Amino acid sequence: LMQLSIPLNFIGFVYREIRQGLTDIEAMVDLIDVAPEVQDKPGAPALSVAHGSVTFEDVHFHYDPDREILKGVSFTVPAGATVAIVGPSGAGKSTISRLLFRFYDVTGGRILIDGQDLREVTQASLRAAIGIVPQDTVLFNDTIGYNIRYGRPSASEAEVEAAARSAQIAHFVEGLPKRYQTEVGERGLKLSGGEKQRVAIARTILKAPPILILDEATSALDTRTEQEIQSALDRVAENRTALVIAHRLSTVVDADEILVLDGGRIVERGRHGDLVALGGLYAEMWERQREAQEAGSIEIPDPPIR
Ligand code: ATP
Prior knowledge:
By secondary structure, the protein is of the alpha/beta class. The chain has 12 helices and 10 strands.
């Protein structure tokens, strides 16, 4: 990888270049490392994924030394399981996903994948093992087919179409006059947030990583779109280890474990039914979401400030 060896004055140029055609965080990080303090150890081996279990052990993290963001977070996502993280804005949910992708190194504790500390393996192998479906997917200014195939450039036409079907976007694409050759982006067809997210899901299905990070959109979607995206996400998460930054009811209800994060700590954990019965922060969030849903919104609103 050319990262780290790119002279600083070249980064601005590269950045402008890739902004032209770029897309998501994941691709961006492949090209320029946003956190130069994260480095491969000399002679680091590749991550070897057997089952894909993810463990956070007493993880502490700060962006600025005078403000700790994660204050001792421990959890395990067993291989093939789905763990959802919920909590108020600023609780540290996205920070957890950034640490798993190793945008930053932890400041205390450790993160393991199948027993291997992320800092002991190459970043390239780590990032090949993890697929991210970001909240706001930015697509390449190219065709829909190109955007899907980006997940695995060697994929055949039939594989691209199968991924589109699993992601519930094929029906839409195949109704367009130029189908997979349809240009999207600034000069092409403008896709809705839900359509873009399904393209990102199709791309991730093609990449077929053992571990997934799903950052659900907070923006309100209509019920049908929400159901389509949910069923696409269910398929991509099937038999994979998934960490979901959850904003929607449907994901949370089915998760194997829900972590309620507040102020950088896990304050409650368990399955949906247990947490509702507990009558704490989660139960409060759930109740408020139910009210909001009845009023026509499907977001999980922030819990009251305490
Ligand atoms: P939301 O639900 O609003 O997305 P979140 O729970 O995902 O919130 P994070 O994005 O993890 O929260 O942010 C946690 C805290 O870390 C916030 O207070 C935020 O201001 C701070 N933070 C996030 N990124 C940075 C950064 N690059 N530098 C400094 N502070 C940051």
